[in-house]
Write a structure and sequence with these properties.
alpha+beta, Uridine Diphospho-n-acetylenolpyruvylglucosamine Reductase, domain 1, binds flavin-adenine dinucleotide, Uridine Diphospho-n-acetylenolpyruvylglucosamine Reductase, domain 2, 334 residues, 11 helices, four-stranded mixed beta sheet, Uridine Diphospho-n-acetylenolpyruvylglucosamine Reductase, domain 3, 3 domains
Amino acid sequence: MGPRSFRACPGIHSAEGIQDAVKKREGTYIMRNQLPELGTWISGAGLGTFEANAVLSNMTSWDIGGPAEGLCTPFTRQACESILERAAATGVPVTVLGHGTNVLISDRGVRGLVLCTRRLSDIRMEGTRVYADAGVSLPNLAVAAAEAGLTGLEFAAGIPGTVGGAVAANAGAHGREIKDALEFVTLWSNRERRVCFAQELDLRYRRSRLRESREVVLEACFKLEKGDPGESLAKIRQWGRERREKQPLQYPNGGSVFRNPAEHSAGWYIERAGLKGASAGRAQISVKHANFIVNLGGAKAADVLDLIKQAQQTVLTKYGEHLETEVVLLGFDD
Ligand SMILES: Cc1cc2nc3c(=O)[nH]c(=O)nc-3n(C[C@H](O)[C@H](O)[C@H](O)COP(=O)(O)OP(=O)(O)OC[C@H]3O[C@@H](n4cnc5c(N)ncnc54)[C@H](O)[C@@H]3O)c2cc1C
């Protein structure tokens, strides 16, 4: 960002303002007035909705989290690309949010622009290939594929996120994961659109290169096989029943909090450590499934974080095992 940018920013008149801007140039934080300008541009160009200081708690499955400095929901994939480009050009940091089922958002909220993919919801089928926009609901996609007589995504019907979030996490269940069905993705990467094959994404157990690279999934293509709709839908129903029996779905939660270590599940360690039912504020380690932390109503992110740290410390002390979080922490680092 050069000196012209400073002149173009009406909020920066004082020496302190310029120092602030310089800190921003150094990557410390963004210039104050870039975000409202970006928001005005998004709304004015009809690219999507924009809201300043937007509530985020109701956009996460935990019902927890402070506000987004700016929240936008692009209407189309092309609009999404334009917004990402403009944000990059103006130095506004972007955090992508899908269905918010794998994130813990800090009580302070998220700085910069939160870009929500939910409106990007096109599904297209060509033979045994299924193309889905990043914001497509994974359960909807799994059912649509099954109904169309395609098998290979039944495992995903109970994973409540979006396609983009699922690729970023290499989400999985019932012995299968996204990498088993994904052929390629279209990404927004280094300010351009590119196609990447699944093998290039470093997809491993609940990990991908996307978590660190901050590339954005725009669309995914899954290569499935011909199957029997009746069998696929029966499998989906059966696995759905099993989930309802095992998981505390009556409370807002963030799914599995920790990745499973090699030897035993994270829940096994937490339960053995005597932490089932432990609480902090209005958050509780579920009595039904020890790898879930539930919001009993009005829990804060700080309460959940407290339980995460308690579980990590206790399990490390008792079993020498470090539990890594599977959920992504947003807004805690600045
Ligand atoms: C009740 C419950 C059950 C669950 N069961 C499972 C399960 O069986 N297996 C499993 O693997 N997970 C499970 N999860 C976790 C979660 O649903 C998945 O990880 C899901 O794929 C997250 O998608 P999302 O859209 O909600 O992502 P979000 O929570 O919105 O985001 C998660 C991360 O992905 C990034 N992200 C989101 N969209 C994109 C994109 N388009 N491009 C790049 N990055 C993106 C975000 O920036 C963030 O870092 C469960 C969660 C809940 C609440």
